[in-house]
Amino acid sequence: MTALPPMTELYAQHRRRALAIARRILRDADEAEDVVQEVFTRLFSQNVRFDGKAAYTTWLHRILVNSSINSLRAKKRRGRLESTVGPAIDPEEAAVGNERHALFLEGLEHLSEQHRLVVTLRDLRGYSYPEIARMLQLPEGTVKSALNRGRTRLMAHMASVASDEEPAPA
User: Fold this and answer.
1) What are phi and psi of 159, to 5 degrees?
2) Opening angle at CA 59, ends 111 and 75, nearest 5
3) Model pTM?
């Protein structure tokens, strides 16, 4: 087992990416910050040892993904799921992008947890298939299959909602 680098170094190097992943999973910036703080605090306070079987980033992000998923599950159990949309900076830009963005987020909500995680980690965070497989502890083939199914279901949902919203011809 290898000792972790100093916590301040780990935190400085990985905080931004960790927050981005937690936000995508939790869809709540405040809760994401809480999870990231909890993960780094736990790593520091428990003197956790890195086993060297994977890269630091893969190992750290696996812990973060698990903690985010646990937080999401606890939130679901409490029955306090909330979806908030942040304020728009440019009204014109927001008007153009809000509908598409809302449609995408709604589509993500209709995916299973596994499909949503795989789509988020691959398409939004840019992780490779092997990295996702290690983080989610799934075979790489399962990751590819889940990504394909998740994308297909997301596009189908978005298309069906968009077609329902089109006005009828006069």
Assistant:
1) -65, -40
2) 40
3) 0.46
87-170 to CATH, choices 1.10.10.10, 3.40.50.2000, 3.40.50.300, 1.25.40.10:
1.10.10.10
**pLDDT averages per 10-residue partition of the chain, 170 residues:** 62 85 86 86 68 71 83 68 52 65 79 90 82 89 92 86 62
The confidence score (pLDDT) of residue 141 equals 92
As its CATH architecture, domain 1-84 has Orthogonal Bundle (1.10)
- Which pLDDT belongs to residue 81? 43
d(CA 143, CA 118): 7
3-class SS string, the chain = CECCCCHHHHHHHHHHHHHHHHHHHHCCHHHHHHHHHHHHHHHHHCCCCECCCCCHHHHHHHHHHHHHHHHHHHHHHHCCCCCCCCCCCCHHHHHHHHHHHHHHHHHHHCCCHHHHHHHHHHHHCCCCHHHHHHHHCCCHHHHHHHHHHHHHHHHHHHHHHHHHHCCCCC
pLDDT reported for residue 145? 93
Residues of the chain with CATH 1.10.1740.10: 1-84
